[in-house]
Design goal:
It is built from ten helices and no strands. By secondary structure, it is mainly alpha-helical.
Length: 161
């Protein structure tokens, strides 16, 4: 007996779930990221049901995503302001971001000094003319600010601890 096309069709909800699992096996995703990626393939999908099922099975968690993401960014030498901004862009709620950053146990001052030492091996020379010294200090400030460190940590790192 020949097969019909209906025999090979896949349940749309199961296809959505499988696609979500495929993404989640590669790395953690926030709910927002997952919805964005899946919406391109499944524009009329029932995402509420999907996320409820993923949550029940503990396959997707914004808290776990935020923790993994924040730790990876600390390893890259990024500061709390940059990490906060990137988590917000990925749809993580503000209170979850604050909680995650509080739990990190990172000395942002030491990390800023370490990043400065990595980038600029030698400390700023006091023998530089005043205008060159100021330009160099501003350049190093911008570097640390871009990496997301607060101004007090930047000042502390620049002043040599």
């Amino acid at each position: 007996m020949p097969y019909s096309k209906a025999d090979f069709s896949v349940d749309p909800a199961q296809a959505l779930f499988s696609a979500a699992l495929e993404l989640l096996t590669r790395r953690e995703h926030s709910r927002h990221e997952l919805r964005q990626k899946l919406a391109a393939k499944f524009p009329s999908a029932d995402f509420d049901t999907l996320f409820e099922r993923l949550h029940e099975l503990n396959y997707q968690s914004d808290q776990r995503f935020a923790e993994v993401f924040a730790r990876s960014r600390v390893q890259r030498g990024q500061g709390p302001m940059r990490i906060r901004q990137e988590l917000q862009q990925r749809g993580v709620r503000g209170e979850l971001i604050a909680q995650t950053l509080d739990q990190l146990e990172v000395d942002w001052f030491e990390l800023a000094a370490e990043m400065l030492q990595r980038k600029y091996r030698a400390p700023m020379s006091a023998e530089l003319p005043r205008d060159q010294w100021m330009k160099e200090r501003a350049r190093r400030q911008r570097y640390l600010a871009y990496r997301g460190f607060p101004t007090d940590a930047i000042s502390w790192a620049l002043d040599g601890n």
